[in-house]
Design goal:
6-stranded parallel beta sheet, histidine biosynthesis, multifunctional enzyme, 2 domains, NADP, Rossmann fold, 3-stranded parallel beta sheet, disordered C terminus
């Protein structure tokens, strides 16, 4: 039987409708959730992502603005801008769009954002609290993945989860969140030997490597849950994931499509973190 599709776009719409109701209630209390996004340079992909975030914010009633800085901006100027936002009580969430120009240290930027406004969930304090299972702003893509699994009543506890990829944005944190849910987690990466042996034993397989159609049906376990984080634009302009969807869908029990899978959930979790910041529910950094 073909796999059931985990429809991230449909789930994101449902969650955003619920968030719009939360925002309305906050506004009745005089609280207007506000997200400020900083973009440095003219990267087309980054501009597209930022526009998507601004549009999604507007649809849920979240106030937002975009600060555009030239690629020539100095690291010190960028850090000063972030500190100004840290001290602005009207700004609840701060996001600096990555990647940044080579002369700017991304880690310095991430660490300058106040943990109370770190809606991307990348600050070391946020990551430390996530590791401990404490309240935190969770990284958006990993949080979106866990939310998808919960929404489809997919059991995580006791399952063997294999994460392919070890980035700080997706691979490492999603493995930790799966561990927090009592899965047994294996990380695979570019130096892993005989990776196929690990993949074939995965009950839950999360793939985030940025290589189109790398994982095929013959590599996966019958009935596995496949979460495809990859977004690759092919020569014909179409988007495809890191998993060969057509073949894998014949063997998996659940699978995320590309597009309309993990992507819409990433922005949705960013909105959720912004609302959380506005509510003042997070204890991080206190």
């Amino acid at each position: 039987m073909p796999a059931k599709i985990i429809d991230g776009k449909e789930l994101a719409h449902k969650l955003r409708d619920d968030m719009a109701g939360e925002v309305t209630k906050l506004k009745e209390q005089g609280i207007i959730p506000h997200l400020t996004v900083i973009i440095v340079g003219e990267d087309p992909a980054s501009k597209s992502y930022v526009n998507g975030k601004k549009k999604a914010s507007s649809q849920t009633g979240i106030s937002s603005d975009v600060i555009e800085l030239p690629s020539s901006v100095s690291e010190q100027e960028l850090l000063e801008k972030i500190n100004t936002l840290n001290n602005d009580d009207h700004v609840h969430g701060i996001l600096v769009q990555l990647p940044l120009p080579a002369h700017i240290n991304e880690q310095h930027v991430i660490e300058t954002i106040s943990p109370d406004k770190d809606v991307d969930g990348f600050h070391p304090i946020s990551i430390g609290n996530m590791m401990r299972g404490n309240d935190a702003f969770l990284p958006c893509t990993p949080h979106g993945i866990i939310t998808m699994l919960h929404s489809y009543d997919i059991q995580i506890e006791g399952k063997h989860a294999v994460v392919i990829g070890r980035s700080n944005i997706v691979g490492k944190p999603v493995g930790q969140l799966l561990l927090n849910e009592h899965a047994t987690v294996t990380y695979c990466h570019s130096r892993t030997r005989q990776m196929e042996d690990f993949i074939k034993h995965a009950d839950i397989l999360v793939v985030a490597i940025g290589k189109p159609n790398t994982i095929r049906a013959e590599n996966i376990k019958e009935g596995a849950v496949i979460i495809d984080v990859g977004i690759n634009r092919m020569d014909d302009g179409k988007l495809t994931g890191d998993v060969d969807f057509a073949s894998a869908a014949e063997k998996a029990s659940y699978i995320t499509p590309v597009p309309k899978g993990v992507g819409p959930m990433t922005i949705t979790m960013l909105l959720q973190n912004t609302i959380k910041a506005a509510k003042g529910l997070s204890d991080v950094g206190k």
